[in-house]
């Protein structure tokens, strides 16, 4: 910086840790993608200042806790904020098909 150049305000400067934060988020995401639980692969990860935040939707509280445990040991992660929502899947729709029990009924005269 030249002696005549005004220093930039602190808030306008790029975060020197941004690249490191992105790498830790990507490592956590890769850890979830390697899980044998297919549903965990859709959970997203954000990282900043030691805190890894999980977001997305999973079909059970068990999988939500499993996602948290899976990323808790990623280097650099001090705390996990688990914002994953548990959403139970809807029952399959009938699509106009009859139930098997109605197909088996017979009429006796």
Structure description:
The chain has helices spanning 18-33, 61-71, 100-103, and strands at residues 44-48, 51-55, 57-58, 79-82, 85-86. It has 109 residues and is α/β, with parallel strands linked by helices. The chain has a domain at 15-86: Histidine-containing Protein, Chain: A (2-Layer Sandwich). Strands 1-2-4 form a three-stranded mixed β-sheet. A two-stranded parallel sheet has the order 3-5. Strand 1 (44-48) and strand 2 (51-55) form a beta hairpin. The model is unreliable at 101-106 (pLDDT under 50).
Mean pLDDT: 84
Shape: elongated
Low-confidence stretches: 101-106
What share of the residues lie within helices?
Answer: 25-40%
Our measurement of the CA-to-CA distance between the termini, rounded to an integer number of angstroms, reads 101 Å
CATH architecture of one domain: 2-Layer Sandwich
CATH topology of one domain: Histidine-containing Protein, Chain: A
Whole-angstrom Rg: 25 Å
Please provide the ordered H/E string of secondary-structure elements: HEEEHEEH
- Helix-strand makeup class: alpha/beta
Beta-strand content bin: 15-25%
Task: Sketch the major β-sheet.
Answer: 3 strands, mixed
Q: Assign the CATH class of one domain.
A: Alpha Beta
Strand order of the largest sheet: 1-2-4
β-strand number: 5
Determine the number of helices (DSSP H or I, runs of at least 4 residues).
3
């Amino acid at each position: 910086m030249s002696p005549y150049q005004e220093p930039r305000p602190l808030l306008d400067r790029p975060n020197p840790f941004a690249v490191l934060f992105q790498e830790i988020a990507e490592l956590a995401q890769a850890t979830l993608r390697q899980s044998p639980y297919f549903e965990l692969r859709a959970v997203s990860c954000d990282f900043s200042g030691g805190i890894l935040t999980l977001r997305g939707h999973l079909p059970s509280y068990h999988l939500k806790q499993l996602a948290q445990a899976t990323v808790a040991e990623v280097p650099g992660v001090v705390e996990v904020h688990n914002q994953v929502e548990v959403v139970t899947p809807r029952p399959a729709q009938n699509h106009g098909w009859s139930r098997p029990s109605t197909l088996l009924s017979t009429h006796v005269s």
